[in-house]
Predict the structure.
Amino acid sequence: MAEQDKAVLGAQPFLRGLSDQHLTRLATLCKHIAVPARHRLFEEGATADRFWLIDAGQVKLDAMVPGGSRLTIETLGRGEIVGLSWMMPPYQWGFGAITTQPTQAFEFDARAVRDACDEDPALGYEISRRFSVAVVRRLQATRARLLDTSARSELAL
């Protein structure tokens, strides 16, 4: 990864304040990609082998519901992480994700990041701490969406 891309990566809110050593290591484990609108990044239940840090654009997280439709859980934008399931076995996506507009992102190799975290416990701690914040936010968003959907269903009865 070019030094300029490393600077852009380090400026992302999710990674802000990470040591130069850890940022340099993470920069070797990702690539900057461009994804068109309406591109499905992953399907619920598939293998979670990567994750993304959005640089520009938006990604919608969704869940399959009975009848084959999808329920939007949350829409993520610049500076946010897409994909949390790569951290814990069985490494399967709990949601689906699709871009809602042209999106640029840093795409990380999940296995390589897990290995780097195992090799450097300080890096592992920083990544775990930052992802824990994202997990809590995602759970709160899921809860809010489910409560909203449930309330609308009850009103329709």
